[in-house]
C-alpha cells in the first residue's frame, strides 16, 4: 500500500426496492447518490453523506440493515424504515446524561466470597463492588493491574456525573487536560475526574489497586484522537460542568472528629470541588463508643481498606467486614459500625456530598 493510496469503505446493505430507496436515501436522508448500475436495469446504487458511504444491492440476500444518523438538528422523525427495508434511527449527536433513579438497597460485598475479576479496558482487572448497581445509579469497581509498567492507554474522557479514583495500593501516573505534567497518585491519594476531562493513564507500579466510583453506572468512554497530553496551559481553577479537578494527597492530611461517634475522618475536599454533588471521606477509629444512626443521603457507599468492624443493620444479620469488603447503606436504615479495630480505615462516598445523620 502506498502512502497516498485512496481508500474508501462502504457499508453493504440489501434492498427489496432499489427504485423507491433512491428517493428515500436522497430526499429523506439527504444523502448524495454517487453510483448506479447497470444502466438498463439498476440493481446497485451507492450513496454518501453524514460521514457514511452506503452500497445498496437488490440482489443481496443479507438481512435488512440498520443505520444510525447522529445530529443535534434532526430534520425528520427519529425512527424510519426505507422502502427497501433498511431501518434508520435519527439520534442525538450528544445526548444528555441520563441519571437513573436510585433503587435503594442494603448491600454487602465481601472479598472472601471470591467474586470474579474480569478483564476490562486497557487490560485492567475489575471486581464489581455493587452487583445491583442500585438500579443503574452507580458503579463501584475494585481495579488492579497485576504487572507494573507502562499502561496501554489512550487519551480519553468519560461522560459521567461524578467519578472518583482512589489509590488503594501502589502508585499510578496519570496526565490530565490543563493540569500540567504527569501526576503520581500514591496509596491514600485520590483524583476527582470531572465530566469529560481528557486524561491518560501512563504507568503503574506492580500490584496497583484503585477504587473507582462512577455515576451513573452506565456511562460512555470516548477516545480523543486529536488532543495531546499534557496540554500547554495549567488551569487548576477550570471547571468541567461545574466541577473542578481534585488531586487530594492523603499524607499528612489533617484529621477531624467525624459525624459518627467513635471515629475521626479526613475530608478529601471533593464536596467543595463538586459543589456538593458528592463527598468523599477517609475514616479511622477515634474515641468513644459507636452509636446507632441513620442518614438521608441518596447513595452511601463504603469500602473497607484496613482493619475490621462489624456492620450492624436494623433487622439485618451482622457482617464482620475486613479489607476488600464493601457495603451500601440505604437512607433511613439504622446501622452501627460495631467493634472496630484500632487500625480500621474506611473509604466513604456519598451522593450528595452534604447530608444529615441522626441517632
Total strands: the figure is 34
- Helical amount among residues, as a percent range? under 10%
**Helix-strand category:** mainly beta
- Give me the Rg, rounded: 26 Å
Q: Could you describe the 3D structure shown?
A:
The protein has helices spanning 18-28, 270-273; strands at 11-14, 32-37, 44-49, 52-57, 66-70, 79-81, 87-91, 107-109, 118-119, 125-128, 139-145, 149-150, 156-159, 162-169, 171-176, 183-186, 190-192, 199-204, 208-215, 220-223, 239-240, 243-244, 246-248, 256-257, 263-267, 279-285, 294-295, 299-306, 309-313, 319-321, 326-328, 335-338, 345-351, 357-358. By secondary structure, the protein is mostly beta strands. It has a seven-stranded antiparallel sheet. A seven-stranded antiparallel sheet has the order 9-10-11-19-14-17-23, with no helix packed on it. A four-stranded mixed sheet has the order 1-4-3-2, with helices on one face. The longest helix has 11 residues, at 18-28. It is elongated. It starts with 10 loop residues before the first strand and ends with a strand. 32% of the residues are buried. The model has no long low-confidence stretch (mean pLDDT 94).
Amino acid at each position: 500500500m502506498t502512502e497516498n493510496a485512496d481508500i474508501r469503505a462502504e457499508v453493504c446493505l440489501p434492498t427489496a426496492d432499489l427504485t423507491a430507496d433512491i428517493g428515500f436515501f436522497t430526499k429523506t436522508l439527504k444523502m448524495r447518490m454517487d453510483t448506479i448500475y447497470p444502466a438498463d436495469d439498476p440493481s446497485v446504487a451507492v450513496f454518501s453523506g453524514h460521514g457514511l458511504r452506503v452500497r445498496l444491492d437488490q440482489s443481496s440476500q443479507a438481512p435488512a440493515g440498520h443505520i444510525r444518523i447522529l445530529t443535534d438538528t434532526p430534520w425528520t422523525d427519529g425512527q424510519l424504515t426505507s422502502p427497501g427495508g433498511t431501518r434508520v434511527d435519527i439520534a442525538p449527536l450528544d445526548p444528555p446524561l441520563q441519571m437513573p433513579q436510585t433503587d435503594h438497597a442494603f448491600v454487602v460485598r465481601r472479598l472472601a466470597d471470591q467474586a470474579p475479576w474480569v478483564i476490562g479496558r486497557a487490560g485492567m482487572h475489575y471486581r464489581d463492588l455493587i452487583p445491583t448497581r442500585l438500579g443503574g445509579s452507580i458503579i463501584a469497581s475494585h481495579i488492579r493491574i497485576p504487572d507494573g509498567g507502562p499502561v496501554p492507554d489512550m487519551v480519553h474522557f468519560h461522560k459521567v456525573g461524578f467519578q472518583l479514583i482512589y489509590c488503594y495500593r501502589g502508585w499510578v501516573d496519570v496526565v490530565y487536560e490543563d493540569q500540567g505534567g504527569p501526576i503520581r497518585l500514591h496509596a491514600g491519594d485520590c483524583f476527582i475526574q470531572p465530566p469529560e476531562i481528557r486524561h491518560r493513564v501512563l504507568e503503574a507500579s506492580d500490584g496497583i489497586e484503585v477504587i473507582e466510583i462512577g455515576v451513573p453506572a452506565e456511562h460512555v468512554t470516548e477516545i480523543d484522537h486529536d488532543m495531546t497530553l499534557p496540554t500547554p496551559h495549567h488551569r487548576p481553577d477550570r471547571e468541567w460542568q461545574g466541577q473542578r479537578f481534585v488531586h487530594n494527597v492523603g499524607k499528612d492530611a489533617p484529621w477531624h472528629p467525624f459525624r459518627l461517634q467513635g471515629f475521626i475522618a479526613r475530608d478529601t475536599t471533593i464536596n467543595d470541588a463538586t459543589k456538593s454533588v458528592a463527598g468523599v471521606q477517609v475514616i479511622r477509629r477515634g474515641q468513644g463508643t459507636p452509636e446507632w444512626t441513620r442518614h438521608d443521603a441518596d447513595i452511601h457507599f463504603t469500602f473497607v481498606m484496613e482493619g475490621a468492624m462489624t456492620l450492624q443493620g436494623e433487622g439485618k444479620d451482622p457482617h464482620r467486614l475486613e479489607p476488600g469488603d464493601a457495603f451500601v447503606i440505604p437512607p433511613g436504615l439504622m446501622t452501627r459500625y460495631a467493634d472496630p479495630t484500632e487500625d480500621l480505615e474506611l473509604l466513604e462516598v456519598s451522593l450528595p456530598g452534604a447530608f444529615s445523620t441522626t441517632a
